[in-house]
Design a protein that fits this description.
The structure is a single chain. By secondary structure, this protein is mostly beta strands. The protein has one domain. Helices cover about 0% and strands about 40% of the residues. It contains no helices and eight strands.
Length: about 100
């Protein structure tokens, strides 16, 4: 998501597992710039979301890529690294004006 001055990432996931899920949303931009958000997604019929903080844009939208990862909960120490990965999804760069 960009408004011309700031860029951020947003993901939605409908969690029907019956358990809370953990989400990590990473936005990677030009020059090695990375912003990450960690979110909990409750089990409910409506989609839950995760959003990175918006930062000043550096380059065009086609220079950014976002990756969302959703993992199961219920891990004793609560770390997402030990939870089973359920979904990993990445964005495609925005199409250029040339096609």
């Amino acid at each position: 998501m960009t408004d011309g001055r700031a860029t951020g990432a947003h993901s939605y996931y409908r969690n029907t597992t019956g358990d809370e899920l953990r989400s990590v949303l990473t936005l990677m931009g030009p020059g090695g710039r990375t912003v990450e958000a960690r979110c909990a997604v409750e089990s409910q019929d409506e989609p839950g979301g995760c959003e990175t903080p918006h930062r000043s844009s550096c380059g065009g939208p086609d220079e950014y890529v976002a990756v969302a990862e959703y993992a199961g909960g219920g891990v004793p120490d609560g770390t997402a690294e030990e939870a089973p990965l359920l979904l990993r999804s990445g964005s495609d760069p925005a199409p250029s004006a040339a096609g």
